[in-house]
Structures are given as structure tokens and as C-alpha cells.
Amino acid sequence: MATTARPFHLVLWGATGFTGRLVAEHLAQSYQGKVKWAIAGRSRDRLESLRLSLSTQYGFDKEDVPILLGDLEDPQSLRAAFSQAKVVISTAGPYLRLGTPVVDAAVHAGTHYVDITGEIPWVTTLVEKYHESAREKGIRLIPCCAYDSVPSDLGALLVAKHAQEKLGKKLASITTVVAEGKGGVSGGTIASGMEIASQSVKTDDGRNVYALTPRSAWGRDAEFWGVKWNEDVHKYLTGFFMQVCNNRVVHRSNYFLSYGDDFRYEETVPAKSWLGAQAIRAGVLGFGLALSQAWLHGLLLRFLPNPGQGPTREAMLGGHFKHIVLAKTQEEDGTAPTTIRAEVGWNHGDPGYWGGSRLVLEAALCLALQSDALDADPQLQRGGLLTPASGLGATLIDRLRAADFFFDIKKEA
């Protein structure tokens, strides 16, 4: 089990990247003096520049945030850095190219791990390589801890727990409707999207909704890319592009937490008309096809942000998001299923960056500060390649509520 006798609660790897800087800013703004943390990377000069900027902006001694050096080509340097903390936060992608040495070092150092990836083909390799060794050591490895896929995964957990504890029922399905969202996109996200799409052309890894689930637990679910009317929200729905990550994560959570038999999950965006939904669908599928063509990447990057670039601070702080989570219970006696409606979201920043960086930070702090509560929850896994729901569960929901995210059951019908 990861030791508690370490000088730091957290070490932030990739701190000088676009999202890494935001995580560091959240730490400086909300937790300086309350949490012991360090920043880590290859370039001392860039790390020095970051902490000087933060210390000037937030009024603390820069020496209070130590610098740890490490290099992906030097596994021992990474292990030495990570062995000083309870949790490592990795914000350096694309993870298909840069992520595995960091996870490997965390496992060898006995350090819990979280990241911001949405790269399911890469996560599938982690399940095979590290799940069993991490489980045996009591190390929680939890990728996909930002907007991919905390709101989706914990939203599903919220309605599943309500169904089980309040109604005594399992779930047949969940439809998540991404009802509201305002934000921008970074070059790192674009680069990761290109890696995912290109990889998916070469291999089936990640293309199945059960990609993170043992074959023995596969059901009949599949991605939804059509158009349909939904009576609960009175809108036409089509597939949300991030379901290619989120539904894989939710199905792995269902594998560990047993939401329902042959459970189905879909993630959608609404439109006012059938034609509007068809236009969204065509745009999403067309953009995905373009990302999968490596020969187009150079052209796309002329019009899209490059790695290290992202939305303006004004755009991030002016953003928000809201998901409507619609769950239907399993019924075996011929009666109509109960529909549970919940809402998940945040009104204090964009979902992908200011919000996403806060999500991954709170996941890491959950591991660093609340390990006793996690270990006491009989539903949670104590080690392995996990999901936010199966590794952090309701403890993280409560922590995010304290940070002004909302996770609310609205009604049953």
C-alpha cells in the first residue's frame, strides 16, 4: 500500500503545460499552506519561472513549492521524484506517447496516480500492464479524472446509488444529456484527439464500448450516433463526441460496482429540431474522420491551437456546464421503469480547463487526504487500474460539492 510517511501530499508532473499550470494555480489559490505539494518536470528553468509567477500572484514564498526534476528517458529519476509524494498528478500528454513511463514510475514508487487523459486506446494498455500489480500493492491508478470523465462517471454513480439505496433496484440504462456547456479547446486536447483517432484506424483498441471491461462482462451496448426524440427533455438527441471515452469508463465502473445487468449507457447532446440534430451529428462524425487522417493533421493545425496554447483566461472563467442524467430502472414484472433525473455541473468556469483542472486536483486530494474514508467504503476498489467512481466514489462527490460542483437528484417518475 502507498506509504503515508512522505514529505508531499502531491507532486504535479507536467506543471508547465497549459492544464498543468491551471492545476498549479488552483493549488496556489485554494490550498497553499494547507497541502504540501511539489512541481516536477525536466526543465528547471521552466519550473522556476512557473513557481515565481505563482508566488508573486498569490503571495507566498516560492521555496514553499519545491522543484523535483525527472526525465521520461530516466526511469530512476521519475521514481525518485514520485516516491516523495502520496499522489502524482500527470497533466503531460499526449499520453499514448508520453504517459506510460509516468505510470510505470508511480507503480514502482508505490504512489497513487491520477491524470487528465481521454485516450482510451492508451488506457487499455494500462489495464493489461499495471492493473494486477497495482491491485496487489494497494495503489490506485485512476486515469480520466478531468472533464473526461468525472462528471459522466460520478453522475452515473449518483443515480445508480439512488436506485439501489432508495428504490432497491438496479439500472437498465442511463442517458446523459450534455445540456449546457461553454468553453474552449487547447492544443494539447487537439494533439490527443489526433493520437486517439490515428490509433483507432490502426487497431481496435478502444473502439468497443467495453474496451476497459473483461470480455466475460460484455453486454449488448454500442455507441449511439443516430438522432432520436427524448420525451424527458423534449429535445432531439444525437451522440456527444466525448462518449468515445466516457462510456468506456462508465462501463468499467459498472463492472466493479454492478449498476445493472446488461446495463446500457449513452451520452448525447440536444437540439431543438431533427435537422439541427442531424447537422450536429454530421459535424461530429466529419471532424472525427478528419482527425483520423494523419495526412490532414498539418492542415488542421494551421487553424487549430498548438500544444501549449488554449482558451483565454476570460473564456475559461466565463464558462460553465450542466449534464442532465436520466436513468431507467430494471423492471421484471411488466411494470413501467422508474426514471431518475439528476443534474451535474459547475457554474464557475469552463468544463475542459479551469473546471477540468479543478476536477483532477480534487481527485488527487481525495486520495492524498481521505484514504481512510476510501478504504472504509466496501464498494470501492483498494487498488488497480480504476475509474473515478470505482476508486473514489461518493467521497469524491462530496469533495466536489464542497468545491461548488453540483450533483443533485431532481426527481423520480
UniProtKB/TrEMBL annotation:
GO terms for biological process: glycolipid biosynthetic process. InterPro entries: NAD(P)-bd_dom_sf, Saccharopine_DH-like_oxidrdct, Sacchrp_dh_NADP-bd. It comes from the Eukaryota. It holds the Pfam family Sacchrp_dh_NADP. SUPFAM superfamilies: NAD(P)-binding Rossmann-fold domains. Residues 11-141 form the Saccharopine dehydrogenase NADP binding domain. One of its GO terms (cellular component) is plasma membrane. Transmembrane segments: none annotated. Belongs to the saccharopine dehydrogenase family. This is Putative trans-acting enoyl reductase. It comes from Auxenochlorella protothecoides (Green microalga).
